[in-house]
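Deliverable D4.2, example record:
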Amino acid sequence: MRWAAAEMDDGGVRLCPLDAVGKAAGPVVEVTAARGGIAEAVRSRPEADRWVWRSTAEVSPRLLAAGVRVERCYDVEAAEALLLGHEGRSGAPRSLAAAWARLRGLPVPDDPPPRAARTQPSLFEPGPPPLPPGTDPLDALLAVYAGQLARTEAAEHPGRMRLLTAAESAGTLVAAEMGRAGVPWRADRHRQLLDELLGERYPGGLEPQRLVELADEVSRAFGGGVRVRPDLPAEVIKAFAREGIPLTSTRAWELKEIDHPAVEPLLRYKKLYRLHTAHGWAWLQSWVRDGRFRPEYLPGGTVSGRWTTHGGGALQIPKVVRRAVVADPGWRLVVADADQMEPRVLAAISRDPGLMEVAGSGRDLYAALSDRAFSGKREQAKLALLGAVYGQTSGDGLKHLAALRRRFPAAVAYVDDAARAGEEGRLVRTWLGRTCPPVDGALAGEPADEAGLPREQQEPSYGSTASARARGRFTRNFVVQGSAADWAVLMLAALRQSLAGAGLRAEMVFFQHDEVIVHCPQEEVDAVRAAIATAGEVAGRVAFGETPVRFPFTMAAVECYADAKG
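Output generated by the structure prediction step:
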């Protein structure tokens, strides 16, 4: 049975059971704050198989603190964002108050501005916009929920949209639980590696010893008594210009093309400077508490559905810093990377018979692909497939793409069609229905390409304007990357259910794009490995139906995260 729960301003909660169309199916019950509020309301109703509420992120801290676990939920605000996108209204306010106002034809309140990253709760953070005076929060919740169910049925593919909203809500539960569990973190090891790499700390917020030394090396390399601050790109570009070397940026790939004595210390400075500013002593003091790093995950934080975090840089942990991520005594970190996830997703969504066969062969996908179309040359096969997804259509990429098109025409046509639709300003959707913003929508934070290829190698092949071509490159990738994000959140939901169902002590503690880390007692490692493998296959079947495509993982059970990868 589904139950809806709406919290009141006084900390109490009003709730009622629901029927299949989202309407009240029984009397309204009130649980006051003094009687335990939302935590007691959920705990005392074990028969509830799904809870409908405004926002998991707001409710979960109280539930988790009280030791209450929710099997399933429906996050109204997460669903509203997906439905607005599907309707071509990406970026419109997603709050319960906004959704209620749209239903009633009232002025729609803006969502609160993004708050600053924090490590501790603040009494002064803006809350969600309030409902109009006199509005019962439960009445508003029920009306919005029923409206969302009706809108879901009106979607292009209602079944897929139902699955997507369920998966996104499941992701909010995973995010809350991972944030509470935290990544095991040895602060002493972190401080040790900072001391080793950065040297002595100077008072007053000055740069540490090694950065000072490298800055001096950079300045000496330019000679003439010129002082160059390597942390200021404009100064570096001017210094090279004085040497007759034009630069457009100080990105590493551009610097590596230069033959100059300042390049080597400058590259080392940039690497250590990022460590100092992003994961240095200040970060350690702010983010690590009681042996855990607890980032705040934001499911669907980008328009493609990929997760982000709110502060802390959890999704950009440098390899060297991973030395500080250490399992508890007697425990292990099971680190699982999905193998060639996006090409496998392309096989599943394009229904290309040849590519599905390759993706279901049980072999390394690029090696199997190279045997089919590239005379056994794995690197060419990889570049061709990534070029199709990311829009590389010049030079060798064009030649490799032609070979790919001949052998796997449906796969290439699928991303070509997405690119064309994007250039023409049409809505473009993932397999489950997550929708790319329309032409005037915001793509902030979303790169037009992520193939790891230089931009000059990624020329567009068609489109009337530069902006249209850029959107085409984005939507070409969006249908694959977004569908992969949909698969990933389903995998997390299946893994969460499997770990709990088996009665394991294991906890998911980290997730980014195609990687998940489970912290578990050593004796549970084999069970966790099996659960991860099963979750990947379950997610593939649930998301894309019965196809030959397999979704394997490369896994390692280690004490230290740094030992999981070469």
